[in-house]
Amino acid sequence: MKREIGMESAELLYENWPGQFDSFSHMEFACAIPQVLFLISTRKENGQPNLCFHSWSSFGGDAGGYFAVMQNVAHLSHTYQNIVREGEFCINFVSADYYPNCIATITGNSNESNEFEEGHFTVEPARTVKAPRVKESFMTLECQLACNVDLSRKGINSMIIGRVLHAAIEQKYIEGVDKRYGKQGFMFNIHEPADYATGQLDDTHLASLEVLGSYVEYKNKPFAE
Question: Nearest CA to 10 among 26, 33, 24?
């Protein structure tokens, strides 16, 4: 039996903090779809480097370009204001070893703060944009702002689309798949999955990918029943 969940079902869940279902749709927690985690790097108006620990994104493109699509970029955040003002940013992927460092960039994020220093990260110059890169990142995408859309029209969050101008990838991460897709590779956010039996939201969980096999191996398996 499947549980049918509509927009009115938010009444059956309890927020962990006031306004949570304004900043995030309750569907975020009901569906609990894992999302890759990364650091967005920009520069503040005062010149200080800025970092934002982010998820809620996808990546793709065609012959016309490769694009980073980031949902839920909060209008009140430094990151949103920096991207709109400067028209550029970097996306930096780090392994789960750096998770505590990433969390530190959230707690120390005043106008005067240098989030690189707060998280013990190192500034590295980018090749195509003025926004700084994270030296510890195993892969960085340098992006130019292509689109800024308030999907809900509530003035809370925007979907930011960046055109990827350049990528920098550590050599050992492009030799086979083990590094990129194991515990030392991309980390994923499981954002407070909801338990509809109790109405409570669980803690946020951190996850990594496990490679199960190749396309050739799996396409020949028996049909699932």
Answer: 26
